[in-house]
Amino acid sequence: MAKHRGRGIASINYPIGMNLGGDPSQALVHSNPSGKFTVSLSSIDLGQGMKSVTRQICAETLGVPVEDVYVDTADSDTGPHCMGSFASRGTHRVGNAVMAAAKEARGVMMEAAAEELEVNAADLDTDGRGNIHVKGAPHRSISTKDVAIAAQFKQGRTISGRGIFLVPLSEVNPETGEMSPATCYAHACLVAEVEVDDETGEVAMVRMDSAYELGRALNPRLVEQQLVGGAWMGVSHALFETPEPYYPDPAHGPRDFVEYLMPGPGDICPHDIAVLERPAADGPFGAKGPGEMCANPVLPAVANAIFNAVGVRMDELPITPEKVLRAIKAQGGARPQARR
Amino acid sequence: MTKTPLQFRHNGRDVAVFVDGGVNLLVALRELIGDMTPKFGCGQGGCGACSVLIDGELHLSCLTLAETVNGRAVETLDGLKDGPNLHPLQRAFMEQFAAQCGYCTPGMLMAAKALLDRNPSPTRAEVIETISGNICRCTGYEPIINAVLAAASGGRARA
A23-167 adopts what CATH topology? Predict the structure, then answer.
């Protein structure tokens, strides 16, 4: 009886967004008389950073400090429509909608500023610090706050913008089955090293090395955070989590956190990540999005690593100790494969 | 049902409430005291989101009968910061991006505080052991472990 090390690799393409009858998201941007901006969305931030990234996109497009933008995702009943936070679509779809809305709002803001400075709007630029000035003459400037006040109380103008981004439904060609389910794809490759105990069937993660290509990383720390956490979730899917019973009777299935297994802090392993940025032509500032792809390459890489370690080909998830042990027994013992 | 008078120190302040028999500390804190920082995750001691300190010791408030803290000192995340100044652990969690959805964070911070209070320079293995009763769904634990270690070494640097 022994522990066997094995290494496995997997590469994936991941489509950004979905294609079930078209994939739209809307955004509204408006300024308050204080010169601060509010982005209204129905898109949900469940910790992945939707608010941070849409805030950055809005501020960059408007040409104002990021501190001057507030993102409101409070209520999907009253907010502009969004398909939702899934399919790695948030940064791409919602980001594009926010960009469109912010562009329109910026146009009105420049018109209002032009009226105050008595110049042509086309001659104006933002400094990114809360001021609008005449190009080439930075001393002829007005703060976005004063523009917002003038628009509200003097000009009677709403500094606001509407945005929608729609990836239309792609019909399937009945002859060839061909379609374009997504406008851009993220890519990943991951090498997993595992240790398999041929006495207990337990699989321990030893290390992971990965490369993710996800367009421009708009917020590199949030991207890294998603990749680290998402890979953990991939390990969880590969080796632990199942709503299915461990034994044939569903009554033996997990009912709560005590029985629904997930890896704990002692089960994680070193993970070295390389982020590659190939901006997407139709992404906001070139972004695609990490999203679900964080977890996906882990599962096949772990399955391949187990094959490399003990020679059993696992084709059902999660790869629990019981399944590994049964497979090892069925082939008459562990058969370590050649290390590459 | 008869209500029992209950007095204890909550983050350094005396509080007095009447509780129904069998009410757990988590419910008492959230519904009677109004301290929403301990979170309800599983209600059966499986996730650690409700972790609090009782007389400096780490406890799961969902499994603690409220009546048992009579006369004792209960610390929650709400008492961690000093006025506007965040606790070194909170700062480290921010700087290390140790939260995504944030639901496990109060429990993680209280578990980490219990560790650093008795062991200001823990090893990585000791940090892992300490938070092993706390489930995090988002971060993969790595940033949390790093944050606790960073707060510990920050504390050492000041000492």
Answer: Aldehyde Oxidoreductase; domain 4 (3.30.365)
Nearest to B140 among A229, A256, A257 (CB): A229
**Given a cut of 50, is residue B158 above it in pLDDT?**
no
pLDDT for A64-76, tens place per residue?
Answer: 999 999 999 988 8
B101 → chain A, closest CA residue: A47
* B3-10 vs B73-75, strand pairing mode: parallel
**How confident is residue B157, by pLDDT bands cut at 50, 70 and 90?**
very low
**pLDDT over threshold 50, residue B86:** yes
Any CB–CB contact under 8 A between B135 and chain A? yes
Minimal Cβ distance to A47: which of B101, B128, B141? B101
The answer on pLDDT for B135 being more than 80 is yes
pLDDT digits (tens, 9 = 90+) for B9-46: 999 999 999 999 899 999 999 999 999 999 999 999 99
- Mean pLDDT per 10-residue run, chain A (340 residues)? 95 89 94 95 91 97 97 90 91 97 98 98 96 95 97 97 94 91 92 97 98 96 94 95 71 78 92 96 94 94 98 94 96 91
Contacts of A226 in chain B (CB under 8 A): 100
CATH class of B3-78: alpha beta
pTM comes to 0.91
Quote the pLDDT of residue B87.
Answer: 96
* CA distance, residue B60 to nearest chain A CA (Å): 14
Compute the distance between CA of residue A226 and CA of residue A211 in angstroms, rounded to an integer.
13
Q: How close is the nearest chain A Cα to the Cα of B30, in Å?
A: 22
Sign of torsion over alpha carbons A242, A222, A294, A195: negative
Asked if B102 lies within 8 A of A47 by C-beta distance, the reply is yes
* CATH class given for the domain over A3-16+182-330: alpha beta
Cβ-proximal residues to A155 (8 Å cutoff; 6+ apart), any chain:
A112, A115
Closest residue to A265, CB basis, from B101, B131, B137: B131
- Alpha-helical (H) ranges within chain A are 50-62, 95-117, 144-150, 220-239, 298-310, 321-330
Q: What letter would DSSP give residue A296? A: T
Q: For chain B, what are the domain ranges?
A: 3-78, 88-158
Facing residue for B42 by CB, picked from A225, A228, A256: A256
Class of domain B88-158: mainly alpha
Interacting residues of A18 by C-beta distance below 8 A, sequence separation 6+: A83, A86, A87, A89, A181, A182
Domain extents for chain A? 3-16+182-330, 23-167
Which residues of B fall within a CB distance of 8 Å from A238?
none
